Amino acid sequence: MTEPARATAKQSDDPRGWIVVGALFLMLSVVIAGRSSLGLMMPFWKEDMGWSYGDISTAGAVMMVVMAATAPAAGLLIDRYGPRIIYGFGMTLIAVVFILCSYMDAQWQLIAWFSILGGIGFAVISPSLVSATVAQFFDRKIGLATSIATAGSTGGQLALMPLLGFLVVGISWRPSFVVVGSVILATLVVVQLLIRGRPAPGRHAGAKRAAGPVKTVVAGLLRDRTFWLLSGGFFICGFTTVGVVKVHLIPYADLCGFPPLEGTFAYGVLSGFSLTGMLVFGHLADRFNRPVLLASIYFLRALTFILLMNIAGSETTLYLFAILFGLFDYGTFPIVASLVASHIGRHVMGISMGLIFASHSLGGALGTFLGGYLFELFNRYDWVWIVSLGLAVIAGLLSLMIREDRGGAPVPQAA
Looking at the domain assignment, is residue 301 inside a domain? Predict the structure, then answer.
């Protein structure tokens, strides 16, 4: 076989990958919708249990810290043993957590079940680790495939968050959580049937097994400039999305005079446009300068916080924010995954994305906690949105410092 022919073979996409992409989309749809229910529950738990927004925000922050601590280990396990068994464990744990939470009557149970046990499960079933799985099956269309798979994290919220809102209003939150747990268990069966097998070893150019000592792999990552720039930007990404907007948008809309169902519907609109933005930016990531695309998302996201500070009394402004923020929400994931694959290497994709996702989760934890703390301090959210605007600009600048290189060498690793 000639050298060009070998290169073409190595740069092919595994047809089985599209089945895996569909399974991952479905998995993220139900799990991320469930994880995002924390913001929806705030007004209901405040009325029913007497928990303040600060109390619930603290639980959300603890959950994200647990996710940050768990994600690198989960990524390493996926690198070594494949995704099927690891995802099966994560989905089972999350389903049990929702059923347990339907019985809780004390705040320590929220921390123990949703934050700690749930945090472990949510770290395993995360868009970043899904990106690592997709990268094992795709070369030429990695951006598009990653965007479709991780679009489940927004597609599920689009369809399921409004449905969950109706359930909570109609039958109360306790039976609604049992329904969520049952749906996750049913989805687990489908996902296990669809995710079978792994790509042939060495299919990717320069691919190696991640069989070296963990400390050697991590040491190589910590010396990598691109890893630090992506991690810094993703810390801010977590702060500005899952930290402040995904947790505090519905209670903020409630404070601005919008009823819970209207706030939930706006959240659904945001999720729908997140799906659109993710697919668009995933497609563009295969064709254009990825650091510039990533920076553009952060800069444009910063501008949306100006709209958010002016939604009071204006339903039009609320939905305009939801549309624009949604477009620049999850679009970062396929770009970051593509950059990790080309700059760091697929052979350590799981642990790399796990560590970068840990940064995202820590940013989310800070945003969740700070949102609740500043609200309790000032009885308003304005300073949360101002801080988010400034941080998003910084994330854009960090992204511009990454050099575009679609043929980068992987991180060195011990034999």
Answer: yes
